Amino acid sequence: MDDAVLPPRPAYLLVTARVSDPVKMGAYARALAASGLYARHGGHYLFIGKPVAEMEDWPAGQSIVCAHFPSRAAAEAFWTDAQYQNDIKPLRDGAGEFHIAIFEGA
């Protein structure tokens, strides 16, 4: 058996959103961008927005954010960062419906 330690797999933070208050979402997005939190945890956006082609049964008004992180630990560190949880995330309260998950890459 090979005892070599494998490098961490990349991770992806996926957010699906149905925004009901674009003003609140704008304030949240500006604060998040200004914070530098994604970069601090090694993350960056892969894409943000609504689909350019809805292929099958896409929910109306649904948009997605997909961010890449170097590892699951880095993605979780971003999500649990006190600045994000206490100062930034509350800005989107009441701004819509959000579903968030972290996926590991191959």
Care to describe what's here?
By secondary structure, the chain is α+β, with helices and mostly antiparallel strands. It has one domain: Alpha-Beta Plaits. It has 4 helices and 4 strands; from the N terminus they run βααββααβ. It has helices at 22-35, 37-40, 72-80, 82-88, and strands spanning 11-19, 44-49, 63-69, 96-104. Strands 2-3-1-4 form a 4-stranded antiparallel sheet. The longest helix is centred in the N-terminal third of the chain and has 14 residues, at 22-35. The chain is globular, with a radius of gyration of 16 Å.
Summarize the structure.
This protein is of the alpha+beta class and 106 residues long. The protein has helices at residues 22-35, 37-40, 72-80, 82-88; strands at residues 11-19, 44-49, 63-69, 96-104. 13% of the residues are buried.
Which helices and strands appear, and what pairs or packs with what?
Layout: E1 11-19, H1 22-35, H2 37-40, E2 44-49, E3 63-69, H3 72-80, H4 82-88, E4 96-104
Antiparallel strand pairs: 1-3, 1-4, 2-3
Q: Major sheet: order of its strands?
A: 2-3-1-4
Beta-strand percent range: 25-35%
CATH class: Alpha Beta
Along the chain, the helix and strand elements come as EHHEEHHE
How many discrete domains?
A: 1
What's the alpha carbon Rg, rounded to whole Å?
Answer: 16 Å
Level-2 CATH architecture = 2-Layer Sandwich
Q: What's the story with the biggest beta sheet? A: 4 strands, antiparallel
